[in-house]
Amino acid sequence: MNASLISAEPTAPIYETPSDPESRRVTAYRVSTEAPQIQTANPRREWMDQTIERFAYRCLPLVIGNQLGWDLINPTAFRARWLGGTAPADVQVQPLVSGQRLWASGHFGDGVLTFSAGYLFRTPPGVNLLVTGPLNCPKDGIYPLSGVVETDWTSASFTMNYRFTRAGQWVDFAAGEPFCRLIPLSLDLPEELVPELAMLDDDPELAEKFRQWSAARDAFNRQLDNPWSSESKVGWQKEYFQGRQTAGERIDGHRTQLHQREFGGRRSSPPTTANSLPRTRVARNDAEHFLWRETELFHSRQHKSAQVLVGLAQTLRDRRPLAGLEEPFLSSFDRLLEADPAIFTQVWQEPRAYFWTRMAFQLTDAKLNGAALSPLAGDYVRELGTTNIAEGLRIHLEKFREFELAAAVLGGNDWHGEQPLNVELPWAIPATDLAVVGKGSCEITAFRAGRIQLRLNGVEHTMPLGGGADPLVTSPIVEHAGCRLRLQPQALARLGLAPVDAVLAEGDGYARRHTELLRGALAAIEHYVPEMFEQICGTVRIVGLKSSDGDFTNVSFSELPGAMLLSVIDHPLVMADRVIHEFHHNRLFHIEDSGSLFAADCPAEESYYSPWRNDRRPLKGVLHGLYVYIAVGRFWLQVHREGGLSAADQTLVTDQLLRIGRQVALARDELTRHARFTPPGEGLFAQLSADVDELNLQIAAEGLPADAPAIEVRDDGAIVPQRCRSAGEPLTIAEAIEEHRNAFVLLTAK
Amino acid sequence: MDRPLIDLRQIAEKPAETARVEARLAGELEETTAPLWGAEFSASGGGKTPTPPPSGSAA
Lengths: 750, 59
What we know:
The structure holds 2 protein chains of 2 kinds. By secondary structure, chain A is of the alpha+beta class. Chain A contains 22 helices and 26 strands. In chain A, a hairpin with a 2-residue loop joins strand 16 (434-448) and strand 17. Chain B is mainly alpha-helical. Strand 23 (555-557) of chain A pairs antiparallel with strand 1 of chain B.
């Protein structure tokens, strides 16, 4: 064989490298168009960097072990967890960036996580590959399994496997992180070596060298305690590192680093910086797409809430925390299981469906496990008229039947409950244009032949859909270019959300008077930022309108995806700004739902500066502001680029661009100073930071006057100068920003 | 922007789809180690503001 082994000759080199380059070739054949990157192993380890004075790197065997062989690199960030069972499905794998391909799965079961290697390796005869995890790279919760593959003959590819060490713990694998180490070796070697036992003195020369080394080491260690000694200053003996015997004799062939070839032919050079090990972060291009254009996250959040619904039903069926009172829900759930998926998907796009799921989960968790309710869940239970968890859960489960009714109405199927469906007015049939107006309780008894039967104040009503007469009314609808928004605050009523009350108080008449304004806003969005328009069409379902009346509050809720409350300003461009603004809050909620952006040790108190608020804010609020105003800034930029504006609108756009450019930079600075992010959060923030710079570059290219006046828009759409709060003088935008910042400094000083 | 359909029956037939939810409700997993969703948050304005920025006050 070419890679000849000379056995039982311990004094001679046991492996002779073939001189023929072809006989030394290791080939990695890609088995598909996509395969993980493969590179020479990196000697650096983050934990070694963090040892005092990077002391761990003085251990040369460790350093050589780190870089021995080649690593396969994980292409996409994900996390994995073992649920404790033996089935492959008991290993869960989730991408940290939605929509990316996963390279690992629970293929084998028994708590084993399996990576695809992506290559078939061919080594010279007699040379095999030890396949293991990156050496000296411990990972909490999971352990790399090792195997030797006879790659000199097999035509099969292999997988890299890890075994979880405990159930329930998520383990992250970052993009760019090595997941598999390949070390060439010969299986002949351990078989052909001749092991023997002996006393050290049987080899007098070796024994003498050992004693010299041992004495020198003892003497050195004794001097380490003396802070003034040369040994203490040096800190370590370097003989082994430098390849010297204690007596000074140098050893040929000693290595302090390995010069292995990269696949592709190039010899590797050792990394020059301490931080060259890939850090866990989302690649910038991925982050840009994920932040602004990824639409799969809308679906995945909805799908997850459906998973929670099914898991919840299963748990309630198994555990019966309400001793049978959960039965109406379970029956309703079973019927909805049979619904056409197209109809169910339509129903489940209702913002209230997501809200229902989160509340049902929390109440069940509280009843079964004593978990504390969130502030919103607490408000919601009180809204249900009880403080008792079990009673709150019973009433809440009863409300699930609203979704069954909605599916019947949308599918044109008859529906009648064993018991009437009790609802508190005002109320809307989920995912439909229909609302029941009025006050007090109402019983929905049936939906038959296209007519709703209900009992209100003791009076029976049988009402056709779309009849438009009280109490069953059709909500105002705004439509533009395929986008359809329901002005239906009744769908958000009685959820424990105080801001909804102001919208309900305005009534449908107010909403109807402003449908044209909102349609104009949608038209502006479609015209200037069509990609945003497309996303808004696909996700926003319900808008609540209220008069500003000095209260400019616009609201989005993390628990109500696809819903927003807006204060009316009679100006289509300003309303477009607000829709874009609230939509991006919604979008960021979706992003946050795929994993926390802030690290566990990030300050949570409400004490930070937001350039858009007069009060102190949590860092999460500042991040939301930064995100949504970058989007709003991009909108105004497009408006300005197209031109053709009236003088008043030109003043408005100039104000917005110069104002937002400064504000996002301030918000970015506040987050840079105070926030601590998770690895994915760090990647997304880096992208946002780049977006701030890009936005300001583009704004600067518009050539706007630096001393442009600051303006405000009144409720009626009129544009008026913004004045200094103390002296009443008109402000420039720079002065307005400065005044706001100074007001915060004064607020914090109080 | 077309979205895939949600097939409730299909979810119900695959235990892996709901294992995490059931494990959480069985008290076998902590929300902190296995978060199901993002933190509760209302992105809202702070009520009446005497000098509202034109882009709303919801941040």
